[in-house]
């Protein structure tokens, strides 16, 4: 169905929610592995220069893929509600700014907090997350002016807290507050910013979206260092091309390639919704074929580049796209077969994703302040892995409980 010259994105795609939830569950799990030791190497990240694809190396790209799948639905729903292009641009900018701000705060604390600030790392992080929730919480709608003023005051308080924290911050080496590498949320923010604007100007025209995806993949191929230690496009440092990519935060094209890939899949699914409804099995088979093609591309490119998340190589991109596409179609099949009873246990990770991502910082800080620690035997090997699994579900449970008392982040 087409509305106002654009395909209808009003129907919610539950498989996207499930993909986002599973990815967030895995993200919490792999992020908690630093608290345990002697775990299988395949669960973690490959080291720099190591030719390996660990579970942790697939989570972030799959999350970017799910972000891309959500973008067309989010933007088209705004337009269907009568929002203007200007307001949508403002919305994209505000979401990007929120992710960048949170990302920068988190990444600064990864270098520790100096005692000269008068705050310990756990206290600093608790204040930081409190500021995030005060500013970006979804406050309940109300007609009472006094309550609306209270909400506005809480947002201002959150801004003041973050401003003070940024000013007083010093890391363990007395370094000041700075962008550094933006952090995971910051990288998501820049990728979202770039891809959302691409969609805003191209809308659901596949040829432009596919062209953008192909361009990012090509950039990744040209700029990635091969096994011989040299890139195909080996330009001198400080060249204009790399400066433009840096200004646009394209990197080597790998991260936006994931998001554009998810965007393409969503648009194709909506554009051919009627045909898919008539023959859903062909849609699933097409998804399996696409996943296999990416596997083949990964295998071929692996002859020239190692598989490396840290180096963002083409082989890593293709294999992770294969995983993202395959995971989505598997979840889509489960949804169509009504085999989704398990989803209710992790649903908050898919519907309150940002809240879920921040909960570990609260829990780690509280555990440190009250000196809660598991015995050593529970933090090693299989028991350590089980401990991280339990922690992941604890985080989702906390997210669910916070949602019940109307504490949920939305940007």
Secondary-structure element series:
EEHHHHHHHHHHHHHHH
What is the residue-mean pLDDT, rounded to a whole number?
94
**C-alpha geometry:** globular
Q: What percent of the residues sit in helical stretches (DSSP H or I)?
A: 55-70%
Task: Summarize this structure briefly.
By secondary structure, the protein is mainly alpha-helical.
Your description of this structure?
The two termini are 29 Å apart. The mean pLDDT is 94. The longest helix is centred in the first third of the chain and has 26 residues, at 55-80. The chain has helices at residues 14-32, 55-80, 85-109, 121-136, 145-168, 183-202, 206-223, 240-247, 254-271, 273-278, 280-301, 314-336, 347-351, 353-369, 381-404, and strands at 2-3, 6-7. A two-stranded antiparallel ribbon has the order 1-2. A hairpin with a 2-residue loop joins strand 1 and strand 2 (6-7). With 411 residues, it is mainly α. Helix 1 (14-32) packs antiparallel against helix 2, helix 4 (121-136) runs antiparallel to helix 5 (145-168) and helix 9 packs parallel to helix 12 (314-336).
Q: Could you outline the blueprint of secondary structure elements for this entry?
A:
Blueprint: E1 2-3, E2 6-7, H1 14-32, H2 55-80, H3 85-109, H4 121-136, H5 145-168, H6 183-202, H7 206-223, H8 240-247, H9 254-271, H10 273-278, H11 280-301, H12 314-336, H13 347-351, H14 353-369, H15 381-404
Antiparallel strand pairs: 1-2
Helix pairs in contact: 1-2, 1-12, 1-14, 1-15, 2-6, 2-9, 2-12, 3-4, 3-6, 4-5, 4-14, 6-9, 7-9, 9-12, 11-12, 14-15
């Amino acid at each position: 169905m087409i509305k106002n010259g654009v395909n209808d994105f009003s129907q919610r795609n539950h498989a996207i929610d499930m993909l986002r939830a599973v990815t967030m569950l895995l993200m919490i799990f792999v992020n908690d592995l630093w608290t345990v030791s002697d775990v299988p190497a395949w669960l973690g990240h490959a080291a720099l220069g190591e030719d390996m694809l660990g579970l942790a190396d697939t989570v972030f790209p799959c999350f970017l893929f799910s972000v891309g799948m959500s973008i067309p639905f989010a933007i088209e729903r705004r337009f269907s509600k009568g929002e203007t292009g200007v307001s949508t641009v403002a919305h994209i900018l505000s979401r990007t700014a929120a992710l960048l701000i949170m990302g920068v705060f988190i990444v600064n604390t990864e270098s520790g907090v100096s005692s000269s600030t008068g705050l310990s790392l756990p206290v600093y992080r608790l204040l930081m997350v409190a500021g995030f929730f005060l500013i970006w919480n979804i406050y309940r709608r109300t007609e009472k002016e006094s309550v609306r003023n209270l909400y506005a005051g809480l947002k201002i308080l959150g801004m003041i807290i973050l401003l003070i924290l940024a000013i007083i911050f010093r890391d363990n080496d007395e370094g000041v507050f700075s962008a550094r590498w933006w952090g995971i949320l910051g990288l998501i923010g820049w990728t979202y910013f770039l891809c959302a604007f691409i969609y805003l100007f191209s809308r659901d025209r596949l040829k432009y979206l596919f062209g953008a995806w192909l361009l990012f993949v090509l950039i990744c191929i040209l700029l990635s260092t091969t096994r011989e230690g040299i890139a195909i496009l080996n330009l001198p440092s400080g060249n204009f091309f790399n400066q433009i990519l840096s200004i646009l935060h394209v990197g080597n094209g790998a991260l936006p390639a994931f998001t554009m890939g998810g965007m393409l899949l969503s648009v194709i699914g909506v554009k051919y919704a009627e045909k898919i409804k008539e023959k859903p099995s062909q849609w699933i088979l097409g998804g399996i074929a696409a996943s296999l093609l990416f596997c083949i591309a990964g295998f071929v490119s692996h002859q020239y580049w190692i598989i490396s998340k840290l180096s963002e190589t083409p082989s890593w991109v293709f294999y992770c796209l294969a995983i993202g596409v395959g995971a989505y179609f598997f979840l889509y099949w489960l949804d169509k077969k009504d085999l989704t009873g398990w989803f209710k246990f992790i649903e908050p990770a898919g519907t309150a994703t940002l809240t879920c991502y921040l909960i570990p910082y609260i829990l780690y800080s509280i555990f440190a302040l009250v000196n809660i620690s598991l015995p050593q035997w529970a933090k090693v090997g299989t028991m350590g892995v089980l401990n991280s699994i339990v922690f992941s579900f604890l985080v989702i449970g906390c997210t669910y409980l916070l949602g019940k008392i109307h504490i949920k982040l939305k940007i």
